[in-house]
Amino acid sequence: MADNRAAILTGAKAAHTLHRDLGIREQLERGNASRIDVFSAIAKLGATLMFQPLDKLLGAYLPSEEPGVLITTKRQLPVQRFTGAHELGHHYMRHEPSLDDENILRRSPFATTGTADRQEREADAFASMFLTPAWLVALLLQRQGWSARQLADPAYMYQASLRLGTSYSATCYALERHKVISRGQRERLIDIEPKQIKRQFLGGYEPPDWHVDVWLLTERDEGSLIEGGRNDLFVVKLRENSGAGYLWNFDQLRDAGFALVDDDREDTSPDAIGGALMRKVTARSEDRLQGEVTLRESRPWAADVPLHQLHLRYDLRGPESPGMWEPELRRVLQAA
């Protein structure tokens, strides 16, 4: 058991050291992303990153003079990211070759019991701490204006998982580890079906596929980079001062290649005359996977003088497709 604890500490310390060496915390605090770019970290450490439809494996680490990392294309982006972090741990800690299957998801990264060998325990702990360090959770809470108490609510926990780029269950365990939620709260959260959580955001709208993620975007996401999947749904919920003649214009969403599948208004002050409404629009991307959009709340006769605006950047290419990681492929082609 002492050896297991030592392996966990080694992996966690390595993740902390790599955050520092790559300046990851400073980059995220200065920028508008909310998740750690694990694939970029793999490339920065000199390993070739490839995505392939692997059978019975989630990933592999192949050390050599030109080390390589393989990640399956048969799983969703959060699993690809965790697998990438696990293989990055192998590479950074100079481990032996490793072929990694579903067991990396089943094992608890910080359990001191079990049969996994030392290097797998180190890589498990590394992956978890690399993707969800305490400082990143604190940064997310600050940006979103969430309290620790709110994260005991499955809706908030689900939205936190989307922004961190980790699965819902992995996020629950990570926040328990950081003492944001209790063990009992984590157990209750994990028992809730994701479909039940998504229904809260979509209201009466029924998507063709409930496996898609559903993002709730508010004014707290101003300037953010939204990193999601090709078929994700986006519920934009904004206060609208219609009593004073101000309306949110969602034509910019359509111009950016999004289809509006639902549009609703909720009276937040039914007893007040001319009070503000809550505008809720649900959209999905139809033909653009990357770009940016600015929504404006203005009077129709003074569209150039907005009362409020919401600017978002988006990258909806996940999960990664077969082949060399695209940014690295572009670099190789440019150097040829």
From TrEMBL:
Pfam families: Inhibitor_I42, Peptidase_M78. The keyword Repeat does not apply. InterPro entries: Chagasin-like_sf, IrrE_HExxH, Prot_inh_I42_chagasin, Rad_response_metalloprotease. Residues 45-175 form the IrrE N-terminal-like domain. Keywords: Protease inhibitor, Thiol protease inhibitor. GO terms for molecular function: cysteine-type endopeptidase inhibitor activity. Residues 231-306 form the Proteinase inhibitor I42 chagasin domain. PANTHER family: ANTITOXIN HIGA1, BLL7220 PROTEIN. This is Chagasin family peptidase inhibitor I42.
